[in-house]
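FIELD: query
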Amino acid sequence: MITVDHDGTVLRVEDVHKTYGDLEVLRGVSCEMKRGETKVVIGSSGTGKSTLLRCINQLTIPDSGRVWLGDTEITCRETDINAIRAQIGFVFQDFNLFTHLTSLQNVQIGPTKVLGINKDEASRLAMNVLERVGLADKADAYPAELSGGQQQRVSIARALAMSPQLILFDEPTSALDPELIGEVLEVMIALASEGMTMLCVTHEMGFARTLADEIIFMEGGVILEQGTPDQLFANPREERTREFLNKITELYGE
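FIELD: result
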């Protein structure tokens, strides 16, 4: 089990760089999170937001820089990355569910295969987290029988079943029809109020403004500005931040 730093730091990212060919996607990103914080990463497409999340749990290997989960360096070659990933939930924009498994089976497979929990106990755990996201009645349904919002809630339940230290959300509502976005955001709001540590890439400004402890604005592979929602929305330091927030608010509302 990962031990959280003595000051409550769950995640620390230090000077992370990532290049694809001639394209510098991340150009020295550093940030950290305390236990129970919700931080939201915003910015235009192509600024490195999703790459940052993928570098945190090593789905993408950074060219340089270091990442810690608690007191364990994720980027150290000797670190058991599978053990680390078991403690970092990842909710993708396109759900990534196993299409041949029911909701219950999708949720219980992690505790069974990774944590070694017996099938009966994993089944009870899976039902509990499905109930937590409002889908206990869909336990036996396959992904094709679910709406996009329901599939994403199963994805969140799958992450919760591993009792993670941290959950990463990569545009969790971007693949959903507008009327389905609310049901996913309701689950995320509940998790934030319960003290789950969450790092979210999203364009949902209402969620960011209401729930985020800090908003991180990325531009061109760097963190251009970060601060509380009140600071960024009311008095951004950078003109580019102001332009982006005005544009995104016009597009999606608050």
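FIELD: remark
The longest helix spans residues 178-193.
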